[in-house]
Amino acid sequence: MRVLVTGGAGFIGSAVVRHLVLVKGYEVLTVDKLTYAGTLTSLKTLDNNPSHRFLKADICDRAAIAQAFESFRPDRVMHLAAESHVDRSITGAKEFIETNVIGTFTMLECARQYWQSLEKDEKDRFRFLHVSTDEVYGSLGDDGLFREDTPYDPSSPYSASKASSDHLAMAWCRTYGLPVVVSNCSNNYGPYHFPEKLIPLMILNALEGKPLPIYGSGANIRDWLYVEDHARALDIIAERGRIEQTYNVGGRNERRNLDVVQRICELMDKYHPAGAPHEKLISYVADRPGHDARYAIDATKLETELGWKAEENFDSGIEKTVKWYLDNEWWWAPLKEGYDRNSRLGLLEQA
Ligand code: NAD
Q1: How many other CB atoms sit within 10 Å of the CB of residue 137?
Q2: Is residue 83 classed as helix, strand or coil in its secondary structure?
Q3: What are the boundaries of the signal sequence (predicted)?
Q4: d(CA 26, CA 154)
Q5: Comparing C-alpha atoms, which of 40, 38, 89 is closest to residue 289?
Q6: How do the domains of the chain map onto residue ranges?
């Protein structure tokens, strides 16, 4: 099995690539532009592994992507490359439109051209998995869950660009017959998460005794999924998901942002007692414009139809994550240095 993974040097993409190569024994070509969010150090465990190859390319570069299809000849595409930071999309939407919309269009066109050239049995086996977010559904009130038939209602430039890309992917399936499957997942957390995102930011600020900034009152709710559970889900959906279908992925782990930060503080008290009590570092900052109140996923379709289940509960997953950051400064320190240099005050990802 040969899988072309876009965005494989990012947070979720690198978990997917590690899973495919190390657990499944597949051959993988990672295609990644290595933006600020991508680093090959996240794939260090695959150094010198002959089953993994890397191509530095922009998914908007049609010639480079078409060449990647021709030379690698994938059985499957898992398309994760995206601009993914909501706050960055608010201050600079252009890159989100370019990568998430034009880049997805380019991937679909190159995949279509390649797929049409295949023999019948290869054509039948080919799958294009488009990986997306639950943020396309907008915001929930106190009740209810996002289902696959929930209408799209995106709030931020990021989620609007992802919604556009989901529609393009389905349209390429319905119009041209490209065998597309779409997944929409809730918030991920775990190792190799870029230091500007909520959970790593709080761990690393707590470690340095810096303020832990929380948007608004911290009441916004997210449904957290451990990244390795997501990687497994994506592999299952790409393998057995039905064409032209959407699968929602979520861990049934709803938490208020404030509760997440308080739990991190407790764990930091345990593993970094010198800074205790870390809760005193919590500070409240002005809310993000268009901040969705609550996301929560109904993953019944994926669980019953494809037999996937989240294995990690939030309490054990967050403890593993805190320990991973404390043990892996070699990975985050260089990234954080770049982030600190470029960071803009008040622009802190709250998931
Ligand atoms: P990330 O920002 O950590 O990684 C994105 C990767 O894409 C990086 O390696 C980056 O270098 C690469 N990239 C960006 N622009 C590119 C371009 N033009 N050409 C080639 N490569 C490019 O993102 P992530 O959190 O790992 O998210 C991966 C995917 O999963 C995205 O599509 C995102 O929308 C989706 N998703 C993320 C979450 C989450 O909680 N992080 C939840 C649901 C869905």
Answers
A1: 25
A2: coil
A3: none
A4: 35
A5: 89
A6: 2-194+224-253+295-317
CATH fold for domain 2-194+224-253+295-317? Rossmann fold (3.40.50)
Which pTM was predicted? Answer: 0.95
DSSP tag of 149: T
CA distance 170 to 187: 23
pLDDT digit string (tens) for 151-183?
A: 999 999 999 999 999 999 999 999 999 999 999
Report whether 335 contacts 194 (CB < 8 A): yes
Q: Which long-range contacts (CB under 8 A, 24 or more apart) does 239-242 make?
A: 239/127, 240/306, 241/127, 241/129, 241/181, 241/183, 241/306, 242/181, 242/305
ipTM: 0.99
* pLDDT level of residue 347 (50, 70, 90 thresholds): very low
Distances (CA, A) of 139 to 148, 154, 251: 15, 8, 18
What are the pocket residues of ligand 1 if the criterion is a CB atom closer than 6 Å to any ligand atom?
6-7, 9-13, 32-35, 37-38, 58-60, 80-84, 99, 103, 131-133, 162, 185, 187-188, 194
Q: Using the atom order of ligand 1, give the atom closest to the CA of residue 13.
A: 26
Phi-psi region of 290 (alpha: psi -120 to 50; beta: other; left: phi over 0): left
Q: Per DSSP, what are the bridge partners of residue 221?
A: 256, 294
Rounded to whole angstroms, the Cα distance separating 250 from 125 reads 27
158 is catalytic: yes
Distance between CA 194 and CA 181 in Å, rounded?
Answer: 27
| Token pair for 278 | 């870390």
3-class DSSP assignment, residue 186: coil
CA 270 to chain centroid:
29
251 is written with which tokens? 């861990």
